[in-house]
Backbone:
């Protein structure tokens, strides 16, 4: 890919666009609002490589200059938020035939790509946390993926909406990446970032199979073994997590409630 | 429209401001990594780091209220994150919280004592890829332009409609706004590219570098290294 010519300002300005688009937040229930993450959209418009670079710029800028996301966690963030969303979203979009469709079909494919990309991203995050041993894989995976299943709907709808709008108004921009064939990067992306996380999701989603997975992780050299591992999965710790999860949920609920009340008040004439 | 510029106090003139950007990048990163390396049972060390942060804040001449305000903005996220991390018992929550606040202060100090362009130059000199540095530069330059555009569109929407439209309509309006913003961004990029070409762009940005590595920088780096070494030895 040519990163020296026309793409340079396009990538830079689209990175700023992602920031600006996040200002246009979308009211969902109560006072909470969702906004676009944009990885899938950028990957579809610019191609996965340039989209990935643009998203990385956004994440780095957020970490460095808004102190949001963390400097030491930057590697994980870039992988989860940028690499996984861009490559998986693009691979899904392409493999469903989104490049050569329009209208309702394009909207549907865009929705699926946007929604699933966030799902994979959250699954990867939970997996990393599980490997590091901070939160057991089963709890992390179910919480993260469950949460993003709901939040991802907004991402999917906005991706679909913007794609449909662009298709109607400026279809030439949709071709910026060319209809192209399914290249090597697409294959690597779809296998590494779609098939593997999906397998893990299926494994963890079914009730009996997580045990072999956790065993697999437990024998891996990355995880604390022996007493540490026992402590990690013991039932008292389990209760502790549950209590904390409950506090978490209550706090989020209070936040939603506060936002809802604030909204009611502000919308009154 | 008032913007919360990222490097609002970067134009001040203090001992921290005159440092070379590379020095500050390295020094503050070292401090952050050192904070992250403090073990759980050595919580007292945080006092030393808060002391260091306070000294640096005093030197930097940035109003204390501004730094605290910036910290407060991100505080809710930190609280949620430290609650969500079931890590080493309940003392771990406080530990994580203090750690995050310290890192936050260091980062705020770094970005507010260095002009953005200089920071990018420092990153480039430290070996950050050219394309990433350029992207960050464009991002910073056009961030406020595009945000302003987005806010204007939002204002126009709010002026035209009464109450709330049904969900489907609302979604349609929002995606058209985003699409329009996207098209405008693309067109802006086209114009920028023409402008860059007509000014002789060859793939690299020339930078004027007024700052040189001087004895200030040695002093700062020595101080930071000594401080970190002391906290590691004396703990």
Residues:
């Amino acid at each position: 890919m040519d990163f020296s010519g026309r793409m340079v300002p396009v990538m830079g300005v689209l990175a700023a666009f992602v920031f600006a688009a996040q200002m246009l937040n979308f009211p969902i229930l109560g006072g909470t609002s969702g906004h676009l993450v944009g990885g899938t959209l950028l990957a579809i418009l610019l191609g996965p490589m340039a989209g990935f670079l643009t998203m990385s710029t956004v994440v780095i800028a957020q970490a460095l200059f808004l102190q949001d996301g963390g400097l030491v966690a930057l590697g994980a963030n870039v992988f989860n938020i940028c690499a996984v969303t861009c490559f998986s979203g693009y691979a899904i979009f392409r493999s469903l035939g989104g490049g050569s469709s329009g209208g309702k079909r394009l909207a549907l494919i865009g929705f699926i790509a946007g929604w699933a990309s966030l799902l994979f991203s959250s699954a990867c995050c939970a997996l990393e946390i599980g490997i590091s041993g901070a939160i057991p894989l089963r709890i992390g995976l179910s919480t993260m993926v469950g949460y993003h299943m709901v939040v991802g709907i907004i991402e999917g709808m906005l991706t679909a909406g913007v794609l449909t709008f662009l298709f109607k108004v400026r279809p030439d921009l949709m071709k910026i990446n060319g209809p192209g064939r399914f290249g090597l990067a697409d294959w690597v992306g779809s296998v590494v970032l779609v098939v593997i996380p999906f397998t893990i999701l299926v494994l963890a989603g079914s009730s009996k199979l997580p045990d072999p997975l956790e065993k697999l992780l437990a024998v891996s050299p990355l995880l604390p073994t022996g007493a540490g591992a026992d402590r990690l999965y013991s039932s008292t710790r389990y209760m502790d997590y549950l209590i904390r999860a409950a506090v978490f949920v209550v706090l989020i609920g209070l936040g939603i409630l506060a936002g809802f009340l604030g909204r009611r008040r502000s919308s009154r004439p | 429209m008032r913007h919360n510029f990222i490097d609002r106090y970067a134009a001040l003139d203090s001992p921290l401001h005159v440092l070379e950007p590379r020095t500050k990048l390295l020094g503050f990163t070292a401090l952050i990594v050192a904070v992250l390396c403090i073990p759980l049972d050595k919580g007292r060390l945080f006092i030393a780091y808060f002391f260091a942060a306070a000294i640096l804040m005093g030197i930097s001449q940035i109003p204390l209220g501004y730094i605290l305000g910036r910290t407060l903005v991100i505080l809710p996220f930190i609280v949620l994150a430290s609650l969500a991390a079931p890590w080493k018992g309940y003392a771990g929550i406080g530990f994580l919280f203090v750690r995050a606040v310290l890192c936050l202060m260091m980062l705020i100090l770094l970005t507010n004592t260095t002009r953005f362009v200089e920071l990018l130059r420092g990153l480039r000199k430290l070996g950050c890829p050219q394309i990433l540095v350029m992207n960050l530069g464009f991002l910073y330059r056009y961030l406020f332009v595009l945000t302003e555009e987005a806010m204007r569109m939002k204002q126009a929407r709010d002026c035209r409609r009464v109450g709330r439209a049904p969900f489907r309509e609302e979604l349609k309006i929002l995606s058209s706004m985003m699409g329009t913003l996207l098209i405008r961004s693309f067109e802006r990029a086209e114009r920028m590219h023409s402008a860059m070409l007509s000014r002789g762009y060859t793939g690299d940005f020339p930078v004027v570098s007024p700052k040189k590595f001087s004895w200030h920088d040695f002093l700062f780096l020595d101080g930071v290294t000594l401080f970190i070494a002391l906290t590691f030895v004396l703990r």
In short: Helices of chain B lie at 21-36, 45-60, 64-84, 91-112, 116-125, 130-160, 167-198, 215-234. Chain B has two domains: 21-123+211-234, 135-198.
